[in-house]
Design goal:
By secondary structure, the chain is an all-alpha fold. It has two domains: about 1-140 and about 250-275, Orthogonal Bundle (Citrate Synthase, domain 1); about 145-235, Cytochrome p450-Terp, domain 2 (Orthogonal Bundle), CATH 1.10.230.10. The chain has 14 helices and no strands. The chain has helices spanning about 1-10, 15-20, 30-55, 70-80, 85-95, 105-115, 120-130, 140-155, 160-170, 190-200, 205-225, 235-245, 255-275, 290-310.
Length: about 300
């Protein structure tokens, strides 16, 4: 991710928006130059990501030329070195569903925050990628795959529902079950559902997918009974890593880069709208020390009242 972020930052040198701003273009035209930068960046990202992938995992081999007869995802798959039709389909699905969840996630909000200072799309997107690199945001699908791999190592490739249930309960003693729960939704993530439908059609007998299906059945009732989270259902990360692994991409540290290429579609579209609508500089609210002290006092009072009521 550091390579992707650095490469995108360097592209700022060719920003059409930055040049237009320095030329005192009217504010009403900001969105037009933002649009041009966004389209240029979206066009360049697959090549940048593919070069990073090949440098790291394919001995620096060339990515080849872009084929105008192929779509964005297909060209990206080819540059990565994958010619399997179903990998292209998986990548196309992955890039679509990871493009943007909503504006409140770390990477989307970061791009909006930095962009509100009229930083160009390259700088704003690079900042978003640094946020996406955080383990609580962009590493979730890797963590799911690692967790399932450890499950297989401990209880085998064809565990029973009872074995999985016990493994889940053991996990919950010290951590969480990755791939379940989502801050916004209160039902099964439709982004998970579309991946599940793909897997049911193309890899129904894969042991990893079978385990994911068992988890879909076993985990929600456990989390619901415990009451740890409001949404005990699987999210987009519960299956995406398993699909990529099945079709040959096993380099988990690259999954977040794929996520980043996809996320560009959403956050850059948001930036164009922000410029078109003339959104102001974002200023997070500040609190005085007195306000913080009052908040802590109120919190302590509420906790004391709750303890008193419990004893009564």
């Amino acid at each position: 991710m550091s390579q992707l972020s650095a490469a995108v930052t360097v592209l700022n040198l060719g920003s059409k928006f930055a040049k237009a701003y320095s030329d005192n273009v009217p504010k009403s035209k900001y969105w037009e130059y933002t649009y041009e930068d966004a389209m240029d960046l979206i066009a360049k990202l697959p090549t940048i990501a593919a070069i990073i992938y090949r440098n790291l995992y394919r001995d620096g081999t060339a990515v080849g030329a872009i084929d105008s007869k192929k779509d964005w995802s297909w060209n990206f798959a080819t540059m990565l070195g994958y010619d399997n039709k179903y990998f292209v389909d998986v990548l196309r699905l992955y890039l679509t569903i990871h493009s943007d969840h909503e504006g409140g996630n770390v990477s989307a909000h970061t791009s909006h925050l930095v962009g509100s200072a009229l930083s160009d799309p390259y700088l704003s997107f690079a900042a978003a990628m640094n946020g996406l690199a955080g383990p609580l945001h962009g590493l979730a699908n890797q963590e799911v795959l690692v967790w399932i791999t450890k499950l297989v190592e401990k209880i085998g490739e064809t565990p029973t529902d009872d074995q999985i249930k016990q493994y889940v309960l053991d996990t919950l003693k010290t951590s969480v079950v990755p791939g379940f729960g989502r801050a916004v939704l209160r039902k099964t993530d439709p982004l998970y559902t579309c991946q599940r439908n793909f897997a049911l059609k193309h890899l129904p007998n894969d042991n990893m997918f079978k385990i994911v299906s068992q988890l879909f059945k076993v985990v929600p009732p456990i989390l619901g009974d415990i009451g740890i989270i409001k949404n005990p259902w699987p999210n987009v990360d519960a299956l995406s890593g398993v699909l990529l692994r099945y079709y040959g991409m096993k380099e988990m540290s690259f999954y977040t880069v794929l996520f980043g290429v996809s996320r560009a579609l959403g956050v850059l579209a948001q930036m164009i709208w922000s410029r078109a609508l003339g959104f102001p500089l974002e200023r997070p609210k500040s609190e005085t020390t007195d306000n913080l002290m009052a908040f802590v006092a109120a919190k302590k009072k509420a906790e004391a009242n709750a303890t008193t009521q419990t004893k009564a």
